[in-house]
Amino acid sequence: MAYKVPFVDAKLHYARLKPEIDGAIVDCLTKGDLVYRKQLKDFEDRLAEFVGVKYAVGVNSGYHALHFALLGAGVGPGDEVITVAHTFVATVSAIVHCGAKPVLIEVGKDYNIDPSRIEATITSKTKAIIPVHLNGRLSDMGKVMAIADKYKLAVIEDAAQALGASFGGRRGGSFGLAGCFSFYPFKILGGFGDGGAVTTNDPGVARLASLLRYNGEDRETGEYHHHGYTALLDNVQAAVLDVKLRHLPKWIEHRRMIASLYREALTGVGDLQLPHFEGDQYYDIFQNYVIRTQQRDKLRAYLKEQGVETLVHWPKPMWEHKGLELPDPGLKETESICREVISLPMSAETAEEHVQITCQVIKNFFKGA
Ligand SMILES: Cc1ncc(COP(=O)(O)O)c(C=O)c1O
User: Fold this and answer.
1) Which one of 25, 93, 255, 353 is CB 3.0 to 4.6 Å from 286, fit for a cystine?
2) Do residues 131 and 144 lie in contact, with contact meaning Cβ atoms separated by under 8 Å?
3) How far is the CA of 369 from the centre of ligand 1 (A)?
């Protein structure tokens, strides 16, 4: 169905950047620069500078960034890793694929890890904490880092949804041992397929990720140092991401402006809870604009009927997916979030008019409901 207000608009996104993107792709193709070339290195250097770390290592997904970062922290069989229950499944799968046990805890009102719940779950087996910076807002990294330092735990930041967000003036992906990013097409910095990166100040973690992504091989010497993976960020993909990275600051400002329009229009409407949280240390980039209501399913159906596309991240708690074989941790807040959240249209292409239409539909729903 053609929506009046699409959730994102990939065609328009490309049309606006066409000359630059086509130029970058043609440059790679005409030079034959397809695998592990200068464009990848250039993108990694600029990404590292943007995040505020020494190294960025391009990989083929946010999942692999997490997996390699965990291996870099020495996580393996028998270890426990604390993370949130309200996240994308890849956060948890990366822990499971290291042979470790995910210990899922509750999030706070801002959908990020509730630091007051971390200490009670630390055991002698705990090796790391993964705060997930959800929807473009960082976790309280002051508190998370203090707990990690106290118990000597590694912090791996899942920053897949938070490139450019900061806390206390520092960007996500620069606090812990490693930061993990995703360049899935609809992320704030999205490629034309899957992609990701590990950011770190630790040369050992950077080196391990560089080897693992390339089947364990050191490209200089040809020596295989590990049984690795085929998980390199494609060169052409990196060239495109490098073009887009230059536009990122402008896109962040745009998202913040769209968020403030939603806030103006939706404050006080029905039982809505809006994603504007306290704390002047935070600079949010609004990867998603998530609102919360007891009438989520009805509101979503009504928006669809009126031509407004929305998404739900995520409609059921992870442990209810039987195939994941995760024990039910009994986290009531996470269960309510799954029932109540809805993500409104939000992207670099979302226009003021889209916000007006969306908010009018929402107001009509609550008037008539
Ligand atoms: C919070 C979070 N973690 C991890 C990932 C995994 O990234 P990818 O899809 O690039 O593997 C995503 C992507 O959707 C995400 O949103």
Assistant:
1) 255
2) yes
3) 35
